[in-house]
Write a structure and sequence with these properties.
The chain has helices spanning 2-9, 16-26, 30-61, 65-73, 79-100, 107-130, 134-154, 165-180, 184-193, 198-223, 228-253, 257-284. By secondary structure, it is mainly alpha-helical. The chain has one domain (2-59, 81-284). Helix 3 (30-61) packs parallel to helix 5 (79-100) and helix 5 (79-100) packs antiparallel against helix 10. The chain is globular and about 50 Å long.
Length: 285
């Protein structure tokens, strides 16, 4: 009763009775209202903080925002909210980075990757619906950990890639993304093996992920996944994402080629570990 009176005292003198009647129609009381508001505000703060961190990571590397954001979003958001939110945040990041690195965007490099990616997405979604993919996901995680650890230890040199390599890398990215929602590694590894400068690697990843993210965002919108709740969280996360990307890009500009490659490899190891652990946790449940 005291909480109810205290809540009334916070409102203008002419409003408490009206608001109380409205709440009564909804089956709520003032205490429940404040609890709901607290939960909502806490979730907004959490979304903003996670988005800032995700933007920082991808602003530094050119990928990895979903790697950071999705496990944390899923602690308090439903997957049907977290996935489209992560995609929309990714669009802000890739738009920012593509504009920032527009001098290094080479569509002759991006287009073959995108062309291979599109049929790969179809195959990945088909595979997801019809196959038990848990052990394949574990194998992919182990391969990521092994490849990245080997590269950190021995630092293999760039190799001359066959002309069909970008199509294969794009196809693998689309297929793994469609099946496991973790399609980045094949194209990331491909760009590293080419020996391109770090600006070209980051620009190529940003351009590719912008187009694939745009396609996925449109699919989410048409399917109804991008609803009012997702858009509210998106508005909350937009500014923190931009601030995070700005800070990440600032750090990137002071990072050497060698350090940049090492950061990418460590993130790939993290991605591999998450793939393995998430699959094992599902089996344990």
């Amino acid at each position: 009763m005291l909480k109810k009176e205290a809540a009334c005292d916070r409102l203008p003198k002419w409003e408490p009775q009206l608001i109380e009647r409205l709440l009564h129609r909804q089956g709520w009381d003032f205490e429940e209202l404040w609890i709901r508001l607290d939960i909502m505000l806490d979730s907004y703060v959490a979304v903003a903080t996670i988005s800032l961190l995700a933007g920082l990571v991808q602003g530094l590397t050119g990928f990895g925002s979903a790697l950071v954001a999705m496990p944390l979003f899923l602690l308090f958001l439903d997957a049907k909210t977290a996935v489209p939110l992560s995609i929309l945040n990714g669009l802000i990041i890739t738009t920012y980075l593509s504009l920032e690195l527009r001098r290094h965007l080479d569509w002759a490099k991006i287009f073959p990757l995108l062309l291979g990616c599109l049929p790969g997405i179809v195959v990945g979604v088909y595979f997801l619906k019809r196959a038990e993919n848990s052990w394949i996901k574990i194998l992919l995680g182990i391969l990521l950990i092994g490849y990245s650890s080997f590269s950190l230890r021995f630092r293999p040199r760039a190799i001359k890639m066959p002309c069909f390599s970008p199509y294969i890398a794009g196809f693998a990215t689309g297929a793994i993304g469609g099946a496991f929602s973790a399609g980045g590694p094949p194209v990331i590894i491909y760009t590293m093996l080419t020996g391109w400068p770090k600006d070209v690697i980051k620009a190529t990843l940003s351009g590719l992920f912008f187009f694939t993210g745009l396609l996925i965002a449109c699919a989410h919108w048409l399917s109804g996944l991008t609803n009012a709740l997702v858009l509210r969280y998106f508005l909350v996360s937009a500014l923190p994402i931009i601030i995070g990307v700005w800070f990440g890009s600032h750090i990137y500009s002071r990072t050497s080629q060698d350090a940049y490659v090492r950061i990418i490899l460590f993130l790939l190891i993290g991605m591999g570990i998450l793939m393995v652990l998430s699959t094992l946790n599902l089996h344990a449940l």
